[in-house]
């Protein structure tokens, strides 16, 4: 038996798996219970998503993406005039 696995313990999910589960659920509009097991238990995916929503991480990410998009549009507009 491998030494790094202890019986009775749940496997550790890397954050990327949980984020992929959130993205998949949002993209498909499926209920939380239908998140595939490869992304982790649906309850953990839901808890992580709600925690990020409450602490404002999703809003901050959206603002950052909007700022980067505006900068990219500005750069393209300037280059078109050259």
Task: Explain the overall architecture.
- By secondary structure, the chain is mainly α.
- The chain has three helices and no strands.
- It has helices at residues 15-28, 42-54, 57-81.
- The protein is elongated.
- The protein starts with 14 loop residues before the first helix and ends with a helix.
- The mean pLDDT is 86.
Architecture blueprint of SSEs:
Blueprint: H1 15-28, H2 42-54, H3 57-81
Summarize it:
The protein contains three helices and no strands.
Report how far the terminal alpha carbons are from each other: 66 Å
Count of DSSP-assigned helices:
3
Sheet bearing the most strands, described?
A: none
The SS-based structural class is mainly alpha
Radius of gyration, in Å, reads 19 Å
Unreliable segments (pLDDT under 50, ≥5 consecutive)? none
Q: What share of the residues does DSSP label as strand, in percent?
A: under 5%
Determine the mean pLDDT: 86
Which percent bin holds the helix content? Answer: 55-70%
Number of strands: 0
Element order: H for helix, E for strand: HHH
Basic shape: elongated
């Amino acid at each position: 038996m491998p030494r790094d696995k202890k019986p009775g313990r749940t496997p550790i999910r890397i954050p990327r798996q949980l984020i992929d589960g959130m993205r998949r659920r949002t993209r498909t509009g499926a209920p939380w219970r239908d998140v595939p097991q490869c992304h982790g238990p649906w309850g953990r995916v839901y808890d992580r998503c709600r925690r990020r929503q409450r602490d404002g991480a999703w809003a901050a990410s959206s603002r950052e993406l909007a700022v980067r998009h505006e900068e990219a549009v500005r750069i393209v507009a300037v280059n078109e005039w050259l």
